[in-house]
Amino acid sequence: MTISAPETPSTKIRRTPASTPGGSKVQEENILVTVRMRPLSSKELASYELVAWDIPDEHTIVSKNLAHDRNAGSGSYMFDKVFGPTCSTSKVYEAGARDVALSALSGINATIFAYGQTSSGKTFTMRGITEYAVKEIYEHINNTQQREFSIKFSAMEIYNETVIDLLNKDSGSLRLLDDHERGTVVDKLTEETISNPQHLKHLIGVCEAQRQVGETALNDKSSRSHQIIRLTIESSLRDDKECIKSFLASLNLVDLAGSERAAQANTVGMRLKEGSHINKSLLTLTTVIRKLSSGNKSGHIPYRNSKLTRILQTSLGGNARTAIICTMSPALVHMEQSRNTLLFATNAKEVRNNAQVNMIIEKKVMVKHLQQEVARLEAELRSPDLSSTSLRHLLREKDLKIEQMEREINELKLQRDQAQSQLKETKEASENRGHSSSSSQIVKRLSFNAENDPRNNNKTWRKSSTSTGILVTEIRKLEMRQKQLGDEANRALDLLHKEVTSQKLGTQDTAETIAKMLSEIKAIHATSLAPEEFQVKEKRSSSSTLREEIARLNSHERDITMLEEKLENVQRSIDKLLTAAAGEGDKTTTTPDFKSSLKKKKGGGGGLPFAALSNAANVPNILRSPCSPKSSCKLSENEIENRSPANDNNSSTNNNNGSNGEKRSSSMSVKKMQKMFKKATEDNIQSIKSYVTELKERVAKLQYQKQLLVCQVLELEEEASTEEEASTECRRRRRCGDDDVENDGNHSPWPEVFEEQRKEIIMLWHLCHVSIIHRTQFYLLLKWLEQHLDELGNASPALLGDDPPGSVTSSIKALKQEREYLAKRVSSKLTADEREALYAKWEVPPEGKQRRLHLVNRLWTDPLNMAHVRESAQVVAKLVGFCESSGGQPLSREMFELSFVPLSDKKTWMGWNLISNLLHL
Length: 921
Ligand SMILES: Nc1ncnc2c1ncn2[C@@H]1O[C@H](COP(=O)(O)OP(=O)(O)OP(=O)(O)O)[C@@H](O)[C@H]1O
Fold this sequence. Notes:
InterPro entries: Kinesin-like_fam, Kinesin_motor_CS, Kinesin_motor_dom, Kinesin_motor_dom_sf, NACK_C, P-loop_NTPase. By secondary structure, the protein is an alpha+beta fold.
């Protein structure tokens, strides 16, 4: 069935005249549609084919309304141009392709394609169009010297719905990709830069040779694929200094495969399959054109139904300029195919494109700046040392900061832990202090350094809690150290004395002074520091013990002060000796080492050789005695080896030891021997001086520790006395009902106290919303107590003494029974581990059958000690099962449900029986 072709109103043919090559730069326009009718082919002539179409003017084609035309009378079609059989391709190009083709030079994408049935002259036409376009493009390039052009060439064919690179057929099927800016892109399509027109023609020839061509009944060389030759043209002004404006566009020259009827084309097998793909893709093209021609661009346009329409998408209703040359055979035999072509052309005429210029603007300044930046980065990369140094520096700084922060964090953590432990101890101490009258519970935080400098945090020996006994131990240790220091001072003085005497250095006065000091220190030790047993018994400790210890420590104060003074004197004497020795040395042979050492020592105690002298026991070994030639000689030989010959020659004489030197070595001169002894003496004196300095330091340390200890002991004393007062006051309060009445009669009698306390208890129940049954029960208990107190008169139960009245006796008896009852439950309610833990805690003797009773008898025996009360309650609760259902959960009211019926099965628990009986009164 043939669809009649609509008339095309001439008003619809709108072409915008071109101002620059290819026309205006941005505008909406219709696709340029022309029709070219070829002459009858030799075959058609041979078969006497009739010409079915007339071309009355250059825009119109009309069917001849022959008998064969089944749609006679409606065969007039108007297009942008209609070319007759004699029209040259040059004219077709001129009128139907030129403007569009040259648009690519000004940045507008352009597409020219030939559409028509097989053997209608598409390839014939497109070959010519391409040739003219290339020619003119190069002419334009040559005539536009102010711009710089570059042309790239690529070519593809769509054969049986696969895209093939005609410049590289081996690459196989190419993929189509969707690009947001460029639309559909053929992936990995070869693109070759064209150097000149000949190069371009050569490549076109290569593509033609590569294209799928086959023989059909209608065409000896029928194109079996759609061919797209693409010229990508980029141009920019040569003299633009600040800004680069580039036009970039593609010119697509498309030679479609021809639609064919299998019957007419007489295709079978491969050709039939090819024809099927060709027709299918052309049908999609037709549909796209038809839909676009309806003006409904926003509706679905099936571009994706074929690769041809996908690739040509921007040329069909997109931003490109498009020209379609529809080719047709004049023969009557192809009338229907020709009519379909004209219908397609008619629809295509209605399609409007929105042509746009593709301009790339590159600011030269920006480019220059970026180039500089790139150069800088490249230079930086080339010199990695520089960048890595600064990086290393930064990293190091960061590391140091992190280290410092970690130290601070650790310090803060330490402080936090200390504060928490202090808080805990304070809490415990205050709890214990409130109710304990026994000095054995006194705890006190004591912090001092027993072995080292107390100001040294790292080595501070911290004892968070210590008993009085430990304090006494520390006092004894201090005394011991004091004694040791005295001994060491003795030894030092002794050695010094010997040294001075043997060497006769210094004045006679100095030697005498030292001898005197030595005897004094010995006397001090003989009188004040008798050896003591170093065992302190914890149990023996008490406030009085502490006071005794402090008194004793204070009595040593004088000794320590004296020791300090003596050591000070010794040091002064040594300084004198050293000065004398130096003076002597100046005149004679004082060694350079000694001089420098002297200078250093005078500079202050900080540089003293404590490390060498820190162990007092080593001091005698460190000192080199001139009286022990064996060691001296050994040392001296070493020294001699290291000594310069000049010094040896200048050595002064010292006759005192000359004979010894001769005895030790016949080869050693007397002078050398004297020099050795002299050096040893100097060293010894220096060592003694250092040692004495160290002793002084240690005495000062001892003093500090002693003061610290005294402070702690005084604080303990103060606390103990406060607690004693509190305890006394407590006892007084407990007795007030009795004693105070007796004393002045102003205080309330016991019944009033009882009444007052009962009100307080009832108010407490009220405030705590205690179960009213429990209130009632305890109220009755109180009532029972009140009754019995009445029987006792105005006496407090606390003062019942050893001979209580009968009712109280029965209570005591009931309590005893209750304890026995609970003791029996110890085995069943507590595990073996729990029992052992409790025995240990409550100091139950390890042996004996009555351990359970022992334990229970210790419960609830110290009503003023809240810790005792709490722990007793815990044990009893466990024994009677209050804790059984808790499982770590909060206490519930049900735990305290009391039975108001006689405890028939718990008759031994007489305490509750008594209360229950009251309820039945
Ligand atoms: N305008 C023309 N003037 C003279 N000869 C022409 C013209 N157009 C086409 N021919 C000749 O017609 C024959 C078929 O042309 P062509 O191969 O270009 O058709 P086609 O549409 O490309 O066919 P197919 O679709 O099968 O490839 C060729 O021999 C060609 O030389």
